Amino acid sequence: MSMRSCLMAALILEIFLGGKAVFAVNEKSDYIGIMFYQKFFGNVHQNYSRYSATLTTVSCGHPIKVYKQKVSGDAKTADNFSDWQSAKVGPYDGYVLGALVGTVRPDCFQDQFPKFFEQFDLDLAELFYWGRLYDQYIIGRSMVK
Amino acid sequence: MCKHFYVLIVFLSLIGGAKGENVETILTAPSETATTPLSAGDVLDFNSIKEVIKSDGLEQTVIQKTEEIKEEIKKNKKIKTGRYNVPEEDQVWTFLTEYWLIKNAPALNWDFTKPDYGLDIYFKDFLEKQGLYEKSFKILLINSPNVAHFALPANNGEYIFLLSAPFIRAMDLSKQEIAILLYEDYVRGEMAFFKKFVMSKELQNVLGTNFSGKKLDIEIFKKVWAQYDKLIFDVGFNFQQQYDVTKRVGETLKSNLHLWNNYLGLLKKIDDLVKANVLYKGHNSIYPSPELQLSWLVPTTNKDRPVNP
Question: Residues A132, A43: contact at Cβ < 8 Å?
Fold first, then answer.
């Protein structure tokens, strides 16, 4: 194989793979914007389920990149699909509960009383468990009709 | 020679022009009016320029700048000291309750896969029907009979309801009965029995203070969590408290006979369960007692009327 044909093959491969990667990102999601985690601690999940694997734990006020969900028809009809936001936190692509994120940075307890919070010396397992607590809560609020 | 002289004159005029001086000035000797530079021994008399400084407003600027710097230092110090603030009473309840829930995760076993009972929507509707608007709540189902049901305080009048899944399964409670049970806990919470029990004088003294330069006594908070344990697992509520709660719930539900009958049915179910199931024997010591509650609610003749506590 000549040098020229080798280069051509490499170029074709590059275009093919590059094109596919871009297509995959577009197919998965469209970027909406930054949202902030609103509660003490929370978990980013692998799938849109409270019981799916936890990718990472975020603390109050942590910025989260939120994407528009574009998934197959089966998923859309799955239980509680609309409760979840497709999210990217650091290197992790996952899902967070929509009720726990907001567009405004909250007035976090940890930021208001940082030294007080430090005194309790929470370890990583406890922070994770705090996130689990918010996974497990059934949250509601009565409203004026 | 003449040519060279003209070139020199042009060159000097260029230099002089740059300095804003005349060629004549450069070519002549230094003038008599030029200021004499100060030597090492001379003293500069600032009084002579005091008036000039005053008229320029420099003194005022110095005072203003000093004030600004002082203000900035004060502000930074306040921010630095503010980091050591202890929350006020109305800001601390969610932290206290959730920390206790995390520490007691093994005993309560709340981290488990559970079915969606649709309680959020049903309880929200129930509260609205009772005229209780803008009330936030969190329900935490637990997979343990250690605690049957409980309303724990949180910030801004919110409650964190603990609800035992085995407890509601054992009695096969309907959504309405569960909502009534939670409502009873809500009324108990509003009567602040729990807050009064766990709140110590030491905690009251430390809340809303600042511990900059001091050590925060963590033992005070540990004692509060010990009080949580004591009330939730051990002593529960007394007869008078239970009587007040039962009467209050009875009064509010009586306007809807269907709900009132369901409340009576719920108490009957709990009474049967605690009498028959050894797992819930301790329920009567936490909530005394379904049998008494029924007697307080149901109108009786004078002959068999129970004695109020």
Answer: yes
